[in-house]
Amino acid sequence: MKTAVYPGSFDPVTKGHIDVIERSLKLFDRIVVAVGDNPGKKPLFSTKERLEMLKESTKHLKSLEIDSFSGLLLDYVKSKKANVIVRGLRAVSDFEFEFQRALMNRVVNEDIETVFIMTKEHYVYLNSSIVKEIAMFGGNLDDFVPKFVEEKLREKFSKK
Ligand code: ADP
Hints:
Helices cover 42% and strands 19% of the residues. It has six helices and five strands, in the order E-H-E-H-E-H-E-H-E-H-H. A five-stranded parallel β-sheet has the order 3-2-1-4-5, sandwiched between helices. The longest helix is centred in the middle third of the chain and has 17 residues, at 92-108. It binds adenosine-5'-diphosphate.
């Protein structure tokens, strides 16, 4: 049984993230999508809201667990009996940061590998910050986030 952990902020989940999850499921028996509970990041959505959006957006997928974690990712990965971390790669701009993280993680634990999944070209420039910006100005989000997430974004910005 090969389990991989896909960690991230998912603030909120986008169609780019879902594309990475679907591709990862072709490679592994089980994927644990792990929402990082990092208060230092000041997310727009609470951990509970991010988990809810992920659950709703991946209802069509099997062999998936949606969870949250705090503390060291490597400890969390071990606790899930996984030895692979999945990360998505977009443009070259992701590379340096991801490269650094993957190598540092390997220094700490040789047994855990990081695997990078390339997204569909259509999502190469998509990230959660752009989505929030478009939502703030009332732009069209059909191409970028599932309907449920779009509604949550609208609610969030209508309250502000
Ligand atoms: P983090 O704050 O850890 O970067 P994100 O939620 O922004 O968390 O992203 C989680 C992972 O998903 C990262 O590996 C990121 O590169 C990847 N990712 C995000 N958006 C996309 C996308 N559009 N295509 C491919 N990978 C993506």
